[in-house]
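pinging the channel bc i need a second pair of eyes. not urgent but kinda urgent?? the chain im working w is below, pasted from the shared doc
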Amino acid sequence: MDNNPNDVVTILLVNSDSNSTATIAESFTSSGIAQYGYVPPSASTAPQSWPTLQSLISANTRLITFVTPLASQDSSAPYLLDEFNFVFENPFENTSPTAFTCNPDRPDSVKGSIPNAMSSNRMPLMNHFLDQQQAFNIQTPDVAAINTTNNPNTSPQGTFGQALGTCADQYNRPPTFVLLDFVDQASPISAVDALNRVSGSVVERKEFPARDVEDTSTSGVAGSANGSMVAMLAAVAFGVAILL
């Protein structure tokens, strides 16, 4: 971030190990990125008006970090934000291309109600995963269907482009973030560009790194690695920030 002063970065940190806020803050401080952390007016309520990208750049508060779960709010690290105080998500578990929905699923306070979610000023995060049900109630990504699931077009049923357009209509604004598996497959970012009214080449946009290649004779998808956390949120899934 030191070398890219016009970049605004969002991190969504899934704290599955239940680390303390202080422990997480230590990593931010030691890496030198804590200085860029955006601090909202309230730690418990989404602001009435979110800052524009330019205002974040001008203030040099270009890093917005959401943590779930966040053990506690720490006054020494006010830039670590409890995700669901500021963001709502639609369901992330889905095994049918006809079952994608934009209805809020988390947090519970707005579950099932788009009007309540939007009036809370939380930013919408749209999950778009298609999984397969395995033994022992385990779900894994439906890799064979990825070229349809991540398709930027509005058809056939279950495409990313269709879901993105539907949620934008229902929210009366674009989702702020989207999360996908295998974001390097089927060019889903072109649907994001279209919604952001971005056309042509994007200055300094870099190609996604090549993944380790495995046998593609059955899946048609090269590689099995899921990538790493970069400007697009990642872990097993990748996210694409949609500009406000």
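so Residues 103 and 112 are 5 Å apart (CA to CA). and The radius of gyration is 18 Å. — does that match what u expected or am i reading it wrong
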